[in-house]
Amino acid sequence: MSRKRLPVWRTVLIIATDVVAIAFGMYFAYAIRFHSAFTDWVPIHVGYDSEIYRGMFLPACLIWFIALRLNNLYRRRSRVLDFGVVRRILIGCCWAMLMLIAWTYVRRTSNDFSRIYTGLMPMIVFLAILMNRVVLHHVFQWMMLKRGIGQVRTLILGSSPIAGRLISILQMHPERGILPVGVVLGRSEHDRSDSISGLPVLGVADDLEDIIREHRVGEVIVARADLERSYMIDLLVRCERAMAAFRIVPETAELVLSGMTVETIDGIPLLGLRETPLQGWNAALKRLLDICIASCVLLLSTPVMVLICILVILKDRMDPFYIQERMGIDGRVFDILKFRTMRPGAEENSGPVFATDHDSRCTGLGSFLRRTHLDEIPQLINVLKGEMSLVGPRPERPYFIDKFRNDIPRYMARHHVRSGITGWAQINGLCGLHGSIDERLKFDLYYIENWSLWLDLKILFLTVFDQPGYG
Hints:
Strand content: 5-15%
Number of helices: 17
Number of domains: 3
Largest sheet: 6 strands, mixed
Structural class: alpha/beta
Distance between the termini: 49 Å
Shape: flat
Helix content: 40-55%
Number of strands: 12
Radius of gyration: 28 Å
Strand order of the largest sheet: 3-4-2-1-5-6
Order of helices and strands: HHHHHEHEEEHEHEHEEHHEEHHEHEHHH
């Protein structure tokens, strides 16, 4: 089988097994309603015509597949299973059910179908598709892709940090179908090491065609943004001659150009930065979610807050609350609330500094509060006041922002939304001293430009059940 056809084969397999799962789910729901002990609990009061169900079987499968296809579940190299896939499957099932109801209404057969079956079918089909994706995920990741089956052999052109990061991501997620086999150095690179991020250096870009043929490469990814335009075109032509796909990863302009949108006016393209979806109804919906969850959590945590206040007063002889200036939405400064964890006057000699994992300025109780993140509970009051959100970029002190705003491109773009108690950067391990400011900014900008209610719920879920902290 040609290596160029493997991604198509992978997508076809996903589609075929999803269709089988849809058919199985519909049949299983039918069997539960009409041919199981369920009929003893909820008897069939009127007769049913099995021919009607048989007649709608194939059209219903087709409608269900179309609904899933419209929700982008069969794009090349898309993940087989993750939180976003589950969300799209759920939305697709809801759309399919609405389309089926409309179809039966137009055909005037809606009254011929069991209401219980109509309710059971979408739930069972959803579970069947989900189980199929779980199986495929393990099949692709562990049984096939980890052995190099079904992957496109790929060269990484460049030895920059972004190239190393890309290699690590591809090695961690073999289910994407991309197998990095080596690194090729660009014209101006002088890295003489034998390997980069564990991949061997196979040569230089001037020998690209020979390297592609020798190592049976199906794709080349350029992880350098400083190449001349003419040289980039030359690389593209070489890849085409060697029958290899060609893709580019931005590097030095990554922060400036992330989230670009294209608009045309009478055929003239205009590039601009993508605006955050957090506007209008979306902003109102997020604010409503913040108020509801913050109110409930604050009410439930009141006994814990009272206990912490008493312990801080009795053990450390200090005011239990600590107030500090932070910058939030639209650059507005507000007072953030925390439980006090450091000794009074901790920054008199050092001045403002970042917190560390084992901060000597903390009290014994304060270290415990930081490790468990109980010191963050009072920020729920900031959320209710509208100064913060449950999810968003972590607010920073104006002292540090004055330094970052001139040195880091697009740093102030993170203030287009409300700051959060937790965020996309934090659940990806970028908190405290972990990760540079540039790395955190990339995650913050991704959150701002790709916000959705599902993304907020995912971050909250991972904050509570999966990740070590917020930062």
